[in-house]
């Protein structure tokens, strides 16, 4: 019986995604399932809309900057904690993981006050700052785990053979932690790209993200273009994970003593 329950759960999990994808091909002017006829009308409307493409570009750029910045910052933090064994390293790690503890709605309210005092509320720079904060926990764990698994003796050996610090880093350290960096970049990009709860508090008339736009469209109408956008995002995310896994390699780390 447990085996059949497990199979049923595994079959049920992708059902919402499958329904959304199928609904995006409907020829009706509203969301419905089962679909009423087949049509690519809503994909053409999505790709032909300047407004949708603009918010798509904004979300992609925001996620890319957030992923690079948070991964770079977390690599420096992990280097200090793991390699240099700084004091209160465990406390430092707990602080970095703090965004996982607080409700996103509370973070949104706090960020309204913070960004207002900085004059960044409703700006792209404000969203970059907030998304970096939100993605730091997801960036830190794989990078720190990769550093812990890499052999520090290799770096010491390279230095003893006369390699300069930058060359040791480029030729020894970076290849050893590359899977962790790739995992960090991938996780943070996807999380930032899909983030809606906190971003909903912070968008303005001149900056809008794709998830918030989808959320607004759901509240205002039931157009199948929402399903088309969602299906395109699922395809994009799946393709990105597959390509990175094949070309570079993605490792999901579990730290062990």
Question: What is the secondary structure topology, with strand pairs?
Answer:
Elements: H1 2-12, H2 15-23, H3 41-47, H4 50-83, H5 89-96, H6 104-118, H7 124-149, H8 152-160, H9 165-194, H10 197-202, H11 210-220, H12 225-247
Radius of gyration from CA coordinates: 22 Å
Question: What is the CATH class?
Answer: Mainly Alpha
The run of helices and strands is HHHHHHHHHHHH
User: What fraction of residues sit in β-strands?
Assistant: under 5%
CATH homologous superfamily heading:
MetI-like
Number of spatially distinct domains: 1
Helical residue percent? Answer: over 70%
Low-pLDDT regions:
252-257
Mean pLDDT score, rounded?
83
Annotated CATH topology:
MetI-like fold
| Count of DSSP-assigned helices | 12
> Would you count the extended β strands for me?
0
| SS-derived structural category | mainly alpha
Give the N-to-C terminal Cα separation. 36 Å
Largest sheet data:
none
Per CATH, the architecture is Orthogonal Bundle
- What general outline do the C-alpha atoms trace? globular
What multimeric state do the chains show?
A: single chain
Describe the structure.
The chain crosses the membrane at residues 7-33, 53-82, 94-113, 119-140, 181-204, 224-244. Keywords: Cell inner membrane, Cell membrane, Membrane, Transmembrane, Transmembrane helix, Transport. Residues 56-244 form the ABC transmembrane type-1 domain. It is a multi-pass membrane protein. By secondary structure, the chain is an all-alpha fold. The chain has one domain (2-247): MetI-like fold (Orthogonal Bundle), CATH 1.10.3720. It has 12 helices and no strands. The chain has helices at residues 2-12, 15-23, 41-47, 50-83, 89-96, 104-118, 124-149, 152-160, 165-194, 197-202, 210-220, 225-247. Helix 4 (50-83) packs across helix 7. The radius of gyration is 22 Å and the shape is globular.
């Amino acid at each position: 019986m447990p085996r059949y329950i497990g199979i049923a759960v595994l079959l049920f999990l992708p059902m919402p995604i499958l329904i959304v994808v199928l609904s995006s091909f409907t020829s009706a002017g509203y969301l419905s399932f089962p679909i009423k006829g087949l049509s690519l009308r809503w994909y053409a409307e999505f790709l032909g809309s300047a407004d949708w493409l603009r918010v798509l570009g904004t979300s992609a750029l925001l996620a890319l900057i957030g992923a690079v910045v948070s991964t770079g910052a977390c690599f420096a933090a992990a280097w200090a904690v793991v390699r240099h064994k700084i004091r209160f390293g465990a406390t430092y790690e707990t602080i970095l993981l703090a965004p996982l503890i607080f409700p996103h709605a509370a973070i949104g309210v706090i960020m309204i006050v913070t960004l207002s005092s900085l004059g960044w509320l409703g700006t792209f720079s404000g969203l970059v700052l907030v998304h970096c904060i939100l993605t730091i926990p997801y960036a830190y764990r794989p990078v720190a785990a990769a550093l812990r698994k890499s052999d520090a003796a290799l770096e010491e050996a390279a230095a003893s053979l006369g390699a300069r610090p930058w060359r040791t880093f480029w030729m020894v350290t970076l290849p050893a932690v590359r899977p962790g960096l790739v995992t960090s970049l991938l996780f943070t990009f996807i999380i930032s790209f899909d983030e809606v709860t906190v971003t909903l508090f912070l968008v303005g008339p001149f900056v809008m993200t794709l998830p918030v736009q989808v959320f607004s469209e759901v509240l205002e109408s039931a157009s199948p273009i929402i399903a088309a956008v969602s299906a395109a995002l699922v395809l994009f995310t799946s393709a990105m994970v597959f390509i990175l896994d094949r070309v570079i390699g993605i490792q999901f780390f579990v730290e062990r003593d």
